[in-house]
Design goal:
12 strands, four-stranded antiparallel sheet, 3 helices, mainly beta, single chain
């Protein structure tokens, strides 16, 4: 089944904004919590350039790994003093534009896109030294999210499968799964190869397409070939 709908990077990027306080809410009986701004950090001098997107917090190092969409890399913020976040490092990956990051056991996983309709990459780095661990691996089409399972036994990747209709590219979306031997560690991820990734697809739902659409599940292909389709 083709890609259904893209999750807004702005919504996911709000995590970083909330953690270092770029906004607040008003308490009420239904919502007794108040978010108070205690510090800010500007990733760019240019407004509306998606310079602060997906974030991952590492409690062991008090660092926030933030995807910088403007630069296509990863900004590392030291938030040991939340009132005054500071830039600790800027990380790049050997291939692709960074799309997501996650941290577990001092290992930073970073996915990158090589373009719509193309397979992307995943790379691993040391959360303290920022040195790369192992090799950059080829994964599925347009990876847009990476995370570790809570127990650190697996690495999960959302392959968005975003199409490039002009060049005839429309890959299926999928979930990539790595299960490092003994759980996530610098040693185990360094030993991973592209062939270790297991792919979970959605092909079993293809026969249910009409029924799913009848229940308001948004499933579209090429807009030029979809009658009545209006791109949001």
């Amino acid at each position: 089944m083709k890609h259904v709908n893209r999750m807004s990077a702005m919504v996911r990027g709000a995590v970083a904004a909330l953690m270092i306080g770029t906004g607040c809410t008003v308490a009420s009986a239904a919502n007794p919590y108040v978010l108070v701004e205690i510090g800010t950090y500007s990733h760019s001098a240019n407004f509306d350039e998606s310079a602060s997107e997906i974030s991952a917090f590492d409690a062991n190092t008090n660092q926030l790994f933030v995807v910088n969409g403007e630069l296509g890399g990863l900004d590392v913020l030291d938030i040991s003093n939340p009132a005054s976040p500071s830039l600790a490092a800027q990380m790049t990956v050997p291939a692709g534009e960074v799309t997501s990051s996650a941290v577990y056991n001092n290992v930073v996983a970073v996915t990158a896109s090589l373009g719509d309709g193309l397979n992307g990459t995943i790379s691993f780095f040391n959360a303290t030294t920022y040195a790369q661990i192992g090799s950059t691996l080829t994964i599925g089409a347009t990876p847009d999210m990476v995370t570790f399972t809570p127990d650190g036994s697996k690495i999960l990747i959302a392959h968005e499968g975003e199409p490039d209709y002009e060049n005839g590219l429309d890959p299926v979306g999928s979930i990539g799964i790595f299960a490092p031997t003994g759980g996530v560690s610098a040693t185990s991820v360094a030993a991973l190869t592209a062939g270790d990734m297991v792919t979970a697809g959605f092909g079993s739902f293809d026969a249910q397409k009409a029924a799913l659409q009848a229940n308001d599940v948004r499933i579209f292909g090429d807009p030029d070939e979809t009658p009545g389709f209006t791109e949001a």
